[in-house]
Amino acid sequence: MSTPGTPRRPGPLAPGAGAAAAAGVAAGAVTTGTGALVALVTGASTDPLVAVGAAFVDATPPWLKDWAVAAFGTADKAVLTAGSVLVLALLAALAGVLARWRWPAGAVLVVALGAVAGLAAVGRPDAGVLAALPSVAGALAGLLVLRALLARLPAEVESEDGVPLRAGASRRGFLQATALAAGAGVVAVALGRVSSTLVRGTAALREAVRLPAPARTAPSLGDVDLAVPGAEPWATPVTDFYRIDTALVVPRVDPATWTLRVHGLVEEEVVLTWDELLGSDLVEAWVTLACVSNPVGGDLVGNQRWLGLPVREVLARARPTGDADMVLSRSVDGFTASTPLEVLTDDRDALLAVAMDGRPLPAEHGFPVRMVVPGLYGYVSATKWVTELEVTRFDAVEAYWTQRGWSERGPVKTQSRVDVPRTGAEVPAGDVVVAGTAWAQHRGVSGVQVRVDDGPWVDAELAADGGVDTWRQWRLVWAAEPGEHTLRVRALDPDGPQTGVPAEVVPDGATGYHAVDVTVV
Ligand SMILES: Nc1nc2c(c(=O)[nH]1)N[C@H]1C(S)=C(S)[C@@H](COP(=O)(O)O)O[C@H]1N2
Ligand SMILES: [Mo]
Question: 161-189 in b/e burial notation, b at 16+ Cβ within 10 A?
Fold first, then answer.
């Protein structure tokens, strides 16, 4: 309580706090916008928002990542961005309120936020010397704008119960300046993002690529696609292919400067250039890629025709030493995957892929070069934007997701899925087509069975085989009787039926039967 006679020092939440918070948010927008514009020069991953988001992604514990993918699927990045913007707005509002109360308190918060973003940017694996510049410039701009706005703050802002403004203070002037700053910040962010996609996009680089004819083309296939309406096509359209990675900004890699360095436990270090890669005998293969985070019945799996150089040929040039048992592939943005050496040197089509569906890889799928390894989940094999293969040992180094609680090895588990009918569907009694897909990469699907309620497992009809590395479609005509029914599916590989024991995706992939509940009317 203030005693009569002592000058009253208003607390941080005295009337006017709302206006100060608005000034803080406007200054925050200017900070973010400045950072985005400076990042046009220093690189997309140095954008303060992007850098903090990326550091957050890397620090995300497995349970949270798992939950995010389960809850938001491939929209997890959009949710993360929205969340970051919200947190930033709240912190900026707090900085405004604190700065009005005691300028140093607010200024320290702004500087601290800038420092966190700057450190996050400097800590990125692809950071250059100027990585912190956007954050520093942004924080400075934010401080200047916050100071200028607070100077315009009327000494007593009109409170809700109508305390009048002091003479000379202009509420309108303050609001206009705040709106102007906020607008400028938002425009700068938008401008930064748009120019970044234009300037740093890979469209032109992709257009310029001339792919060589394959030395070995993929075999021509029979009726691999049963074309049941509502079922996923056998060949996943590239635009529908699931995307999973830790990259908040898609790395931009110019083939002209791309190299693959093969080093570690090798007789001879090898550096492969783009021209050498395209000049090699490239092979084409259909391979079904699956994510370890795919829940039972999920769609983080897709099948495509890849073109690339077998990894074993590059390894043969480098000649791994006898004690090596693993290859740690590393991407330009620091992601790593640990792949057993024997899987990369046997006769399967483990590729350094340059094309998908006959076209250069889309940027999000690893342009210009990624790995594709039949039989292993993506997190231990399918490194996109790959630039390095370190031949090493499992007991010497851990890959990105292993450090975060996932298994060091990730062979794909045999799985199957019902695509039609969907769960919750109402279908008319009589003949109902049940259809879907099943996969057991590098072992091959030898059968698929369906069970209605507690009935017997019944063999489904299989589509033509696209090879052991691809998924296989199946269908079954079911004589459906009215009532509620549960349809379950299981795939068979050479070792027998897939397991029905449910397991979570962590640490090495989900198991259990996919089941759909339908109502027959
Ligand atoms: N550089 C990089 N490569 C990566 C990842 C990543 O985060 N960064 N994620 C892996 C995972 S977990 C999967 S499932 C596949 C997915 O490949 P796609 O996005 O082309 O479908 O990429 C793999 N390669
Ligand atoms: Mo994955």
Answer: eeeeeeeeeeeeebeebbeebbebbeebb
